[in-house]
Amino acid sequence: MARAALLLAALSTLVAAAAAGGDAPPGKIAVVGAGIGGSAVAHFLQQHFGPRVQIDVFEKGTVGGRLATISVNKQHYESGAASFHSLSLHMQDFVRLLGLRHRREVVGRSAIFGGAHLVLEETDWYLLNLFRLWWHYGIGFLRLQMWVEEVMEKFMRIYKYQAHGYAFSGVEELLYSLGEATFINMTQRSVAESLLQVGVTQRFIDDVVSAVLRASYGQSAAMPAFAGAMSLAGAQGSLWSVEGGNKLVCSGLLRLTKANVIHATVTSVTLHSKEGKALYEVGYETEQRHSSDFYDIVVIASPLHLDNSSSNLTFQGFTPPIDDLQAAYQPTVVSLVHGYLNSSYFGFPDPKLFPFASILTTDFPSFFSTLDNICPVNISANFRRKQPQEAAVWRVQSPKPLLRTQLKTLFRSYYSVQTAEWQAHPLYGSRRTLPSFALHDQLFHLSALEWAASSVEVMAVAAKNVALLAYNRWYQDLDKIDQKDLMHKVKTEL
Ligand SMILES: Cc1cc2nc3c(=O)[nH]c(=O)nc-3n(C[C@H](O)[C@H](O)[C@H](O)COP(=O)(O)OP(=O)(O)OC[C@H]3O[C@@H](n4cnc5c(N)ncnc54)[C@H](O)[C@@H]3O)c2cc1C
Ligand SMILES: *[C@@H]1O[C@H](CO)[C@@H](O)[C@H](O)[C@H]1NC(C)=O
Ligand SMILES: *[C@@H]1O[C@H](CO)[C@@H](O)[C@H](O)[C@H]1NC(C)=O
Ligand SMILES: *[C@@H]1O[C@H](CO)[C@@H](O)[C@H](O)[C@H]1NC(C)=O
Ligand SMILES: *[C@@H]1O[C@H](CO)[C@@H](O)[C@H](O)[C@H]1NC(C)=O
Ligand SMILES: *[C@@H]1O[C@H](CO)[C@@H](O)[C@H](O)[C@H]1NC(C)=O
């Protein structure tokens, strides 16, 4: 009886799918951008639609996007995203799937610099740290931890929903399903406001929270609470990175997927239709020429910046027009300096006594936000971190390129300086509404989720969501899109 009902249900789904003309898999899929978002979505799309679907990935720069390395003195160093939280489950999966390894953590202490002196120093002994934080900031520090943990715990529900095949058409729907009105509210009010409400002191926010947010987002505690909580989680958990360079995940996924990587700049997406179904023409430019091709599904896996350095991507033939995408991003400059730190600047005249590998800053001095003594992307078993009096590779993050005078302040002397200028994260506050993933039937904007929080794992979550959304829409499985009360549904399923 139950079996017959199941069979009937399966049959009716098939019939419905056939009626909608959606029984055949898509022919071709285009992905714009080969950062982690684009590489991961190519992988997930293939997982869902099967190996016969052709996936073209367009990349105007280099595979990896904001995962990138720079070579200094014959070794490679991360110049974009450096590390991930241990609970980054999709990233952990990719690394396992690709046979990559975690890079060994080389311990080093950090401190927060407040312009004139260090406001907080990390010691070798964890309990002592806790004690100091307690001594300085009281119970507020524990309240912060609880607040962050609660957000992370709810955010982690997404993995369960995704494992059950559920997708969301917009950022608001996704956040609501995880944390209801509280999460939506957290995208609208500031970190500072939310923390003060749970009893964290202004002093702790000014000294510690601001420094962490500056280091990770280049923004202040006035940024939205949700993005803030996600980055504070990164400051607490144990972090990891990929041996050989984080960008290996992107090239690895593309290779695994056998995606067709096209080195070109996509300039337009134009809507056409074929037998009542949408068909998208993707226009692209290489150095030599302009071409275009037709696709059943298109995923934009890149922010659409409001700058004029890159040619704009335009959407043609859509009603209503698609024009609400461009938004401002926060520029961040990463400078890799090979040289000798001026430890006097931080109050340590004798460089041998400078104990820190990492310095965060509060709002003063304003010309840099972090300074790290970094290790190359491939380190051997006997590798040790450079001593502070030795020449080392320091990674300095700053809102603007460092001036020579600023470099001379931070370093006694240096051999080389190499920089990468990024449009690093959304400039939170420059957009009033949470964007949608679905721009049209089968046209998606993966980077929409960056407006909730911007990290590599968040983009991997967005990639899985967009792949599921495309799949569920293609086969008209509307019960798997924007469902309410999923906590209850996934408990009773299976
Ligand atoms: C300095 C820095 C430090 C960071 N640190 C961390 C960290 O420690 N941990 C963490 O989790 N996250 C970190 N992040 C954030 C993280 O790097 C990003 O959230 C993530 O890499 C974004 O991936 P993406 O694929 O969405 O976008 P991107 O990596 O930006 O990829 C988009 C790609 O699309 C391409 N593209 C754009 N337009 C077109 C077009 N028209 N045609 C063809 N190709 C196009 C671009 O060239 C690019 O390669 C950091 C970012 C920066 C800049
Ligand atoms: C968010 O919630 C707080 C209290 O829970 C409330 O005071 C505030 O008005 C809410 N903000 C928004 C934008 O909804
Ligand atoms: C765009 O270009 C104009 C003129 O070339 C320049 O003045 C302006 O600053 C640029 N804007 C951005 C955001 O780069
Ligand atoms: C990109 O779009 C903006 C706003 O629509 C426009 O001002 C700018 O000139 C465009 N840039 C290019 C290179 O087309
Ligand atoms: C180092 O920092 C000290 C203290 O801020 C400063 O006086 C000095 O000029 C800096 N530069 C060098 C090269 O020592
Ligand atoms: C790391 O890479 C550099 C340059 O690519 C190479 O010289 C070095 O031998 C590598 N080290 C290890 C341990 O693989």
TrEMBL record:
Q: Does the keyword Glycoprotein apply?
A: yes
Domain named Prenylcysteine lyase: residues: 120-483
Q: Which UniProt keywords apply?
A: FAD, Flavoprotein, Glycoprotein, Oxidoreductase, Signal
Family in the record: Belongs to the prenylcysteine oxidase family.
The stretch of residues making up the signal peptide is 1-20
Q: What protein does this entry describe? A: Prenylcysteine oxidase-like
Matches recorded under Gene3D superfamilies: FAD/NAD(P)-binding domain, Protoporphyrinogen oxidase, mitochondrial, domain 2
**A Pfam family it matches:** Prenylcys_lyase
Organism of provenance: Echinops telfairi (Lesser hedgehog tenrec)
Cofactor dependency: FAD
